Amino acid sequence: LPLRTSVVELAIESGTSVRQIAEQVKTEGVEVSPSLLYWLFRLSGQARQIKAGNYEITPGVSAWQLLQKLARGEESLQAVTLIEGWTWRQWRAALDKAEFLRHDSRDLSITQIEQVRILSSLIEKETGRASDRAMISSVFHNRLRLGMPLQTDPTVIYGMGPSFDGNLRRRDLRADHPWNTYTRNGLPPTPIAMPGKGSLLAAVQPARSQALYFVARGDGSSEFSDSLEQHNRAVDRYQRLRRQAQ
User: Fold this and answer.
1) Degrees (nearest 5) of the Cα angle 93, 94, 95?
2) Which of 143, 214, 150 is nearest to 179 (CA)?
3) 100 phi and psi angles, rounded to 5 deg
4) Which of the residue ranges 35-44, 94-103, 141-150 would you say has the lowest mean pLDDT?
């Protein structure tokens, strides 16, 4: 039989099992033994490391190479051009034309352009690390969907205006105003910053997760938790590390 000469686009959804991936590989025409791939994942202990995403599978790939690609999350890189100075209508049109983006808007809690602007401004202020933006967006989407307050400090600071002296105190978190996401549910009434392209994309394409909490690690990144118990343990751990570093 002639070898396949074209690249195969393999889309792995979150929660897909190893057996389902093996069957998907067969269905998509990747020339790798499904049973060999299945057992390699099981025996190598990397079954839990599979990362959802879109992958380009080149002709002649081996089962082991495919396993490593999926375990490392080596997704295909595709670009969408967003030009500063465009109107929001132009931004939205460009995103709609990007077929490789997930257009699962029925699952999103943010549907209006103004809400996207507001949410992306929160993401912009919460992290400068590009790799964390989609997860922070996921936390906000999950909280909005469940009716939980966002409880994000940058909104409180924004609402305090010139009275903020660099220290955020508990009484500040309890002082109600339209931008206090501790005392009020939902999004604040306006954006709190000018979001960049990465934050805008994260707002409309959040990571798929159950995370409801995150805490800064101190190195610019964040640790995400699904439950309050996990979050409290993470907070305690990083507070101890900060004290030890002082």
Assistant:
1) 90
2) 150
3) -80, -10
4) 94-103
Are 10 and 55 in contact by the 8 Å Cβ rule? The answer is yes
Identify the CATH number of the domain defined by range 8-72: 3.30.1490.480
In the prediction, which pLDDT does 1 show? 39
* Single-letter code of the amino acid located at 182: Y
pTM above 0.70, yes or no: no
Both structure tokens of 124: 């912009």
Which among 100, 79, 97, 78 has a CA at the least distance from the CA of 89?
97
Helix residue ranges per DSSP H, the chain: 18-28, 34-44, 63-72, 88-97, 113-126, 133-146, 153-160, 170-174, 197-204, 228-245
Kindly report the length of the chain.
246
- 53-57 and 8-12 strand pairing: antiparallel
Q: What is the Cα 215 distance to its own chain's centre?
A: 15
Express each pLDDT in 56-99 by its tens digit. 888 888 888 888 888 887 766 566 666 655 655 666 677 667 65
Amino acid making up residue 230: Q
Domain definitions of the chain by residue range: 8-72, 103-211
* DSSP state for residue 112 in the 8-state scheme: S
Q: Please give the Cα distance from 135 to 105 (Å, whole number).
A: 17
160-195 pLDDT, tens digit per residue, is: 999 999 999 999 999 999 999 999 999 999 999 888
